[in-house]
Amino acid sequence: MCANADVALCSDGTRVLLFYVDAGGTQIKVRESTDSGVTLGAAVTAATGAGAVTWLASDVKPSGDACLLYNVGATVYTAKRTAGAWGSPAAWSNTSASIAGLAVYHRDDWNAVIAGTDAAGAAFVWTAIFGDGVAQAVGTWSALREMMRASPGSSVVFGAPFLSRPDVSRISFVEKHTGSVAYSRPQHTFSPGTSE
User: Fold this and answer.
1) CA distance 113 to 189
2) What are the tens digits of pLDDT across the range 76-106?
3) Has this prediction a pTM greater than 0.90?
């Protein structure tokens, strides 16, 4: 495993997928369990980054089809598994100056949360949809939608996004202030039950 990269874990029923970056820093491996994680199969290469991979996020559908998000620098890539086979990675159509965390959850489409910065140095938490054919065309990205912003020079950054839907859509992330009175605090938001 690469010491400078994230890991991702997702499940549906008794199926569990564990993603990690190999020691070389570019190959993303996946090990799969069909017994709730009691045993894991041999590692398979899901994708290979064009450079050092930092952040990973994934989710799996009941069919076993899965989506992996990862970044190389400021670019987010997707790799999808369909009918047991991993397709070629594709870069997103959005832009950022840096990526500080990724999350993805499948509900109709692949719903994503991205933490990072823009070219002006503002820190953001964005949401976006990677299409699975419901609200967004298959294999295409929606525009980034601003969820949280910190102005350049504010010494605030965001990271560690998480997304789930135990009842309604719930998003959490960490707000970190690196100024003279440093702090890190979790932020949490959810959609009203009547909106879904």
Assistant:
1) 12
2) 999 999 999 999 999 999 999 999 999 999 9
3) yes
